[in-house]
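Exam prep: given the inputs below (a chain plus phenylalanine), describe the expected output before reading on.
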Amino acid sequence: MDVLRQRLAAIATLDAPALEAEEIAVLGRKQGVLTHQLKEVAALPLEEKRVRGAALNALKIEFEAAFAARRAALAAATATAAAHATDRSMPGRRAWPGSLHPVTVVIDDIVAIFRELGFAVALGPEIENDERNFTALNFPPDHPALDMHDTLFVAPIAGATTDERLLMRTHTSPVQIRVMREGPPPFRVVIPGVAYRNDPFDASHAPAFSQIEGLAVDEGISFVDLKATLTHFAERFFGASVKVRFRPSFFPFTEPSAEMDVSCTICGGTGCGACKGTGWMEILGCGMVHEQVLRNCGIDPERFTGFAFGMGPQRMTMVRYGVPDIRLLYGGDMRFLAQFGGVRA
Ligand code: PHE
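Solution:
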């Protein structure tokens, strides 16, 4: 009986095949140890038969209960394991692939079009001095054009010279000066970069914004080259059906100066809310490099002429895709950005 009691206690530790074998070994009708002992009871004297028979029957009931309990426990464990198992048929989580920001796509596209025309890329620092940002570009110290550039100065030094006075460049045009002072013409460069103005952040202004500057200086360059180059650019960037027009304008560093408009990309030129009913959208400033600017860079204006232009990639992005508010381009909202999905080739 003691041996059987030990086996009874051990049932709770058995796995499924061992449980089945043990059940047969104890309760099996032919070989079961307990069955066998119960059969032997019949041969005992009456009094012993009663006592031992009752004890063995009670034990049999305990065994039956133990086997049933263990079987239930094993079944429950299997069910839990199945519930936690990896489901290899489950679809994976949707991966969110990265993509280029629409402004980056636009900068890449603009630079690529000018590269095809033989323009190289030049870069310059975002902290400039007053001399290259204004003076060399022919801004007189008290010129009202300086009002157009609400400048962010870096640690203003009282009595500093224009060479010493540092500022956040208000346009990419000082890189024209750097390029022209670096070596003899010809130059054909585009200059992508960030510029800063102390502007409020509203639907059409941002205090930090991109620009792409262009500069071509060589013998015999005329306004015809400017118009042909920028018209070709607009047709490549907006599509062959785009119309362009040049309006007279003013910049201290170009003479003559112009602003270029393209036919409204939303209404095609008939007039809508996006173009304020005019049918046109302004996209860039341009002009022939001012003689004084060439001289400021040691270039002989009798021999060399050139044209320059400057455009804003955020503005170009808004015009190309009909984005109504520049702040959308700074927000990082995936619902907005995922509509563009640019991938660098
Ligand atoms: N620098 C001018 C601006 O920021 C743009 C420009 C560049 C105009 C080159 C003419 C020539 O507004």
